[in-house]
Amino acid sequence: MKWSWERFLVAILERAPQALIDHIGMVLVSLIVAIIISVPIGILLTRPRLKWLGGIILNILNLMQTFPGLAIVALAMPILGMGFKPAVFALTIQGLLPIARNTIAGLYGVDPDVMEAARGMGMSRKKVLYEVEIPLAMPVILAGIRTSAVYVVSVATLAAYIGGGGLGDLIVSGLNMFWPDFIVVGAGLGALLAIFFDRVLGLVEKKYTPLGYSTE
Amino acid sequence: MIKLINVTKIYAGQKEPAVRELNLTVEEGESCVLVGPSGCGKSTTLRMINRLIEPSSGTILIDGKDIRETDPDQLRMGIGYVIQQIGLLPHRTVAENIAIVPRLYGWPKDKIKERTDELLELVGLDPETTRSKYPAQLSGGQMQRVGVARAMAVDPPIMLMDEPFGAVDPIARNHLQDEFLRLQSLMRKTICFVTHDINEAIKMGDRIAIFNRGELVQHGSPHEILSNPVNEFVRDFIGYDRVVKKLSLCRVGAIARKDFGVIRESELPAAAEIMRKQQTEVSFLLDHLGAPGGMLARKLIEKQGAALSPGALKELAQKGREAFIQEDALLRDALSLLFELSVDYLGVLRGETLCGVVSLADIREYAAGKEVD
After folding, report:
1. How large is the C-alpha radius of gyration of chain A?
2. Cα separation of the two ends of chain B
3. Is A49 a member of any domain?
4. What percent of chain A has pLDDT over 90?
5. Taking CB atoms and an 8 Å limit, are A113 and B83 in contact across chains?
6. In this complex, which of B76, B87, B91 lies closest to A211 when CB atoms are compared?
7. Within a domain: residue A79?
8. Between the CA of residue B114 and those of A80, B18, B125, B129, B151, what are the distances in Å?
């Protein structure tokens, strides 16, 4: 393995921009789909009528979370073929659990006295959900999305194996060709991207933490 | 008016009913305190009135109308509800918390704002500084005030209160109780008030309903209950100092007598003579401005009064210079003062002026009386 500055520049200037865009696209789409699926599931599972289902679904999600990322990516290929779609599918599955789990935890964590007071004043169940439960659970739900985002950014590098593109392409090429410069650019940008998502979502989380929670 | 008819509640999976065959009426403008040991069914009863819990059988009427005919949310919007943990929404400001029910009714913004400020003042909080605070920035007592203000937002005729002052320290509790009594004397709402503290019940209730194991054991005015407890449980629950407790039901002014004598400072030399003429048990010494400054009991004077010099008499009288109490004080406080000063009589004051006398014997007579009101 030999380091070449020439190839490094090629990697960072010619290959990286497109790879980064693909990578971010993949992550965002999977994350949004995961949120759209997980948050409503989390909410449904905390409603009194569906509470019994909660344990079962959480267990299934837990199980899915234990599958190695590469295994899911590989399993998605025979069914969905190569490219962007199967990659997004695999990533979405990986992203579901932290969000669903935090949604449930967040909603369970809402002070029952606050809810009793709200019900006792005549707020309907729907109003209590939208005006009390969700706002109060929001910081925990957002923390789940943040965990999920960081996780999905890293698993997305595996998408290259099924032609999903992204930063994984650079890493895979580097590994195949014994080009350390490619590997460093791919892996390095992946790490930076994870930090970036974490920070940005951290800010969002702070913004949506109800003011009353901070006592300063 | 709230009327519970044969109300029974059995929770799923339990054999014993939480509330059994309950019949209870709370009259318009009356405060009824439900009291009993924990698990006696008092809170369950309260929650059945606003349908947070549905009774297993029986009927509850509010102003003659079965509550099952009203949609639960609508029903609750019309009933003030205060709980021990207060349950202020932590992500909403004080003003927004108070505005919850008005918003459910769809009041216009400026009306809500006006009402919020009015309520904050009513419960003794400064609207300017409190309005935009979050609950976490308030003390326990302040939160409880906001909780009460919130429950009164749309001026509901009925208030349900579940240990509303249970979570604050004793001094703040006493203060909140007094203030709530003041508010209630102005507004005359129909109140159901749950507590496990018999002293609070005696203080807050026009009537007290004592519960035990899901059954109503005794229902009556505090005076009735303290005078005639129906059974051993009630006797035990209200405590063996019930006669002393009765003394906090009555104010000094109510039993004060007018037959007291008055001696001016200048008349001291003839004190014994005057007191004999006035034929009163006790005389009070007034200074040259007419302000009470001492007390002379006739018994004492008759024994040795003639032999005493005016100076000695004055000194004797001034020993009782603290033996005065305001007419709106409770008999309990009067008794305490009598013991503290080791005297037999207290002068009763209205502001600065002497208006009566109350003796240890008078208090004893009141305490022993069964049906005096």
Report:
1. 21
2. 24
3. yes
4. 38
5. yes
6. B91
7. yes
8. 62, 43, 14, 15, 16
The pLDDT tens digits of the residues spanning B245-277 come to 888 888 888 888 888 888 887 787 777 777 777
> What CATH number has the domain bearing residue A44?
1.10.3720.10
Do residues B33 and B208 lie in contact, with contact meaning Cβ atoms separated by under 8 Å?
yes
Q: Is residue A214 predicted with pLDDT exceeding 70?
A: no
**Cβ B104–A118 below 8 Å, yes or no?**
no
Whether A134 is in a domain gets the answer: yes
The shortest CB-CB distance from B76 to any of A120, A131, A135 is to: A120
Percent of chain A with pLDDT over 70: 97
User: Does any domain span residue A1?
Assistant: no
Q: How far apart are CA B54 and CA A23, in angstroms?
A: 55
Residues of B with CB under 8 A from a CB of A: 50, 52, 73-78, 81, 83, 85-93, 100-101, 104, 134-137, 147, 150-151, 160
Q: Is residue A139 over pLDDT 70?
A: yes
Number of domains in chain A: 1
| Pairwise CA distance, residues A137 & B355, whole Å | 63
Among A122, A127, A213, whose Cβ lies nearest the Cβ of B90?
A: A213
- Residue ranges of domains in chain B, CATH in brackets: 2-246 (3.40.50.300), 252-368 (3.10.580.10)
Q: How far away is chain B from the Cα of A202, in angstroms, using its nearest Cα? A: 19
pLDDT in tens, B74-90: 999 999 999 888 889 99
Q: Do A212 and B86 touch (CB under 8 A)?
A: no
Instruction: Find the domain containing A191 and state its range.
Output: 13-210
